[in-house]
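Internal tracking record. Fields below are filled automatically when a chain is submitted to the structure queue. Please do not edit lines marked as system-generated. If the sequence contains nonstandard residues, flag them in the REMARKS field before resubmitting.
Queue: standard
Priority: normal
Entity type: single polypeptide chain
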Amino acid sequence: MKSYIFIGGEVEKSALEIAIPENALVIAADSGYDNAKSLGYAERCDFIVGDFDSTKEKAFCSRAKIVRVPAEKDETDTQLAVNTALEQGATELYIVGGLSGRLDHTLSNIYLLEALAEGGISACICDGKNRVRYLKARSSLLIPRSEYKYFGLIPADKEVKGVTIDGAKYNLKNAKLERNNPSFAISNEVKENFAMVSSKKGGLFVIESKDLSK
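SYSTEM-GENERATED OUTPUT FOLLOWS
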């Protein structure tokens, strides 16, 4: 089951390139409800979770189940929303927002992708300017030609070995990427209908981006 999770942060309209399927689970985390509303999906929310210290909204969707938690807690609102989705049986997560604002929250959101991937859950975070996915070792990932002009690979481990890129402006074959030298594999571009990225040892964050001014 797919779940669309709206969280806080700036979001461009293109963050959702297609309409949310009717059978998808929709969750908003605190100020993520404001993003769901601005994108026209507030009335689709099945759950709204958080401590509600940042949302501007005072009246929520009547069909949604409200999960209110204390402000002082061990988990972020994003983690609570993800946990809710997994408890409901979601196996594919599309997280909207969360890539702007406080850097600690942004990094926490990105590293959450690694934990999800290691648990067999397909997930990405998108705000319309960037789309982030995690590629674990001994696996591959398709990057389709899209509105995101650029893509980059950021090592999640100290060393990532056996990295191969095909179908891109700058291809790689069995390369080694190091976390302390991350500039080696950024600002790449898809040249075919899609590019293929794979890794033999170590995980990668795959980040697709675009310049809004261009």
